[in-house]
């Protein structure tokens, strides 16, 4: 069973920075592509960023390009999301996800999900 636990979410002012972490409990961390999604109240869960198994290639949603950066540490079974220049509209619950397929911006590309961590950005 693969378990994902996010941390690092908190309240922050617009323009600030946060780094989210996601620890993945599995013996085969390097077998999974990983991603971050987010969901704001009343909205659909949306793609934020994804990273390949090696960490060599990444993809980011247009809304966060140049501000957010996804990365992974395969030695520590940890996924990260560095978030800079935060905006009010970045407020959401952020979820990490793991999948056995190819990196995807679609929710159904990932079999395993964490419980989420809340990020609140004040104007």
Describe this structure in words.
With 123 residues, this protein is an all-beta fold. 0% of the residues lie in helices and 49% in strands. It has no helices and eleven strands. The strands form two sheets. Strands 2, 4, 5, 6, 9, 10 and 11 form a seven-stranded mixed sheet that branches. Strands 1-3-8-7 form a four-stranded antiparallel sheet, with no helix packed on it. Strand 7 and strand 8 form a beta hairpin. The chain is globular. The termini are far apart. The mean pLDDT is 97.
Topology:
Blueprint: E1 3-7, E2 11-13, E3 18-25, E4 33-39, E5 46-51, E6 58-60, E7 68-73, E8 78-83, E9 92-99, E10 112-113, E11 117-122
Parallel strand pairs: 2-11
Antiparallel strand pairs: 1-3, 3-8, 4-5, 4-9, 5-6, 7-8, 9-10, 9-11
First-to-last CA distance: 40 Å
Structural class: mainly beta
Q: Give the SSE string.
A: EEEEEEEEEEE
Q: Nearest-angstrom radius of gyration?
A: 13 Å
- Please report which band the strand proportion falls in: under 5%, 5-15%, 15-25%, 25-35%, 35-45% or over 45%: over 45%
Let me know the largest β-sheet. Answer: 7 strands, mixed
Number of strands: 11
Q: Count up the helices.
A: 0
Uncertain spans, ≥5 residues at pLDDT below 50? none
Helix proportion: under 10%
Q: Kindly state the mean pLDDT as a whole number? A: 97
Q: Which overall shape is indicated by the principal axes computed on the Cα atoms?
A: globular
């Amino acid at each position: 069973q693969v378990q994902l636990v996010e941390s690092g979410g908190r309240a922050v002012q617009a323009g600030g920075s946060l780094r989210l972490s996601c620890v993945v409990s599995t013996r085969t961390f390097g077998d999974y592509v990983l991603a971050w999604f987010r969901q704001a109240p009343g909205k659909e869960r949306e793609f934020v960023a994804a990273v390949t198994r090696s960490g060599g290639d990444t993809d980011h949603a247009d809304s966060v390009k140049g501000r957010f950066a996804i990365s992974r540490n395969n030695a520590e079974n940890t996924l990260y999301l560095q978030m800079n220049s935060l905006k009010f509209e970045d407020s959401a619950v952020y979820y990490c996800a793991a999948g056995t397929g190819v990196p995807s911006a679609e929710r159904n590309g990932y079999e395993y999900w964490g419980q989420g961590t809340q990020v609140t950005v004040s104007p």
